[in-house]
């Protein structure tokens, strides 16, 4: 699923060395009262992904998890004359899906050109199907075109398809479209945002912070080392949902990008300026090229926020946040008391020189997993989800949405996808 609150984002359209004087900022209309966070669906996306057509395994110890084999573009059924019915599937769903196959229950979140809604099947064939619910991400074609995000939303769908099946990543089930909208059908993750629990408890104790940080390490290890260098680029509590057992699900791959490796075996750099100010790595701000190392910096910021209740760099003016990131080291206050191991891993992750940053040095994620902060973690048991998480959401029944905020059910402004737009742009959505 996508993140369920509007976020303050940093983004520029070009994906190459930029000559601009500084980043452009985009801020959504609604914001959270929590310092350092504005809240939703990312209004902008920047993804470049290569298609994958084979199943993926997640080995840890003697256990493996296998994701469904994604359906390649050549297997996508032809669209009808009205542009409907092209669907991609990662599961036992009917072919040629359309919006009338689902009944809308309520909105889970909104953004600049997308809405995520809780849905159920309109015509269930069994009692089991009648109980099933899904999260459906709905994107307005007209706004996608207006914001020049066609390739980005297509590539977001592709990367979601490629990574579906990992235990700590949202699972894409299908995608389809009609005349006005693009649709991405996902597993429903009922526990809501980890951010809401952090706000409720003010901060996490170290065992809780360690548990969720460890699950994130497993996700980043998979994206970086088993998915040909996928940089996620927007790690923050709002993009982590909790499932019914209290395990994380990473959502919203709108800024993810598959970087791959250069001819010498090193990571390919990218120059796109994107992210959320409090978590952006120094090399992104400096616009000197960045790699998957940005995710390890963001993990350090996230662990700090888990333990203290606030990020180490924050100001009402984002430009001041960027100055702090470039010029001010991460400092822990005396209260609350943070263990030396926790402080050390944050400092090693939040190292300005990425060539010395933990996770980006030789050994990759294995070096992080071997750090004393994670000494008590059974990594195989964690990946197999043998135990409940430290926070178990109060989910009362299948389809319970009490862990999500209430949103208006209707769009205030709705741009029409005219026939003129359809004639010009429908060809780009044929294989969505």
Automatic annotation (TrEMBL):
Annotated PROSITE patterns: AGC_KINASE_CTER, PROTEIN_KINASE_ATP, PROTEIN_KINASE_DOM, PROTEIN_KINASE_ST
The record's GO molecular-function terms, alphabetically, read: protein serine/threonine kinase activity
Q: Where is the composition biased (Polar residues)?
A: 1-22
Which Gene3D superfamilies does this one have? Phosphorylase Kinase, domain 1, Transferase(Phosphotransferase) domain 1
As for family, the record states: Belongs to the protein kinase superfamily.
Report the EC code(s) recorded for this entry.
Answer: 2.7.11.11
User: Per UniProt, what is the name of the gene that codes for the protein in this document?
Assistant: PKA4
Residues the entry annotates as binding ATP? 137
Q: Region entry Disordered: which residue ranges?
A: 1-38, 59-84
Keywords, A to Z, come to: ATP-binding, Kinase, Nucleotide-binding, Serine/threonine-protein kinase, Transferase
InterPro entries, per the entry:
AGC-kinase_C, Kinase-like_dom_sf, Prot_kinase_dom, Protein_kinase_ATP_BS, Ser/Thr_kinase_AS
AGC-kinase C-terminal domain boundaries: 375-432
Q: Which organism is it from?
A: Sporothrix epigloea
Catalysed reactions, semicolon-separated:
L-threonyl-[protein] + ATP = O-phospho-L-threonyl-[protein] + ADP + H(+); L-seryl-[protein] + ATP = O-phospho-L-seryl-[protein] + ADP + H(+)
What CDD domains does the record point to?
STKc_PKA_like
Protein name (Swiss-Prot/TrEMBL): cAMP-dependent protein kinase
Ranges for domain Protein kinase: 102-374
Q: Please list the residue ranges that the record marks as compositionally biased, kind Low complexity.
A: 59-73
The EC category is transferase
Pfam families from the UniProt entry = Pkinase (PF00069)
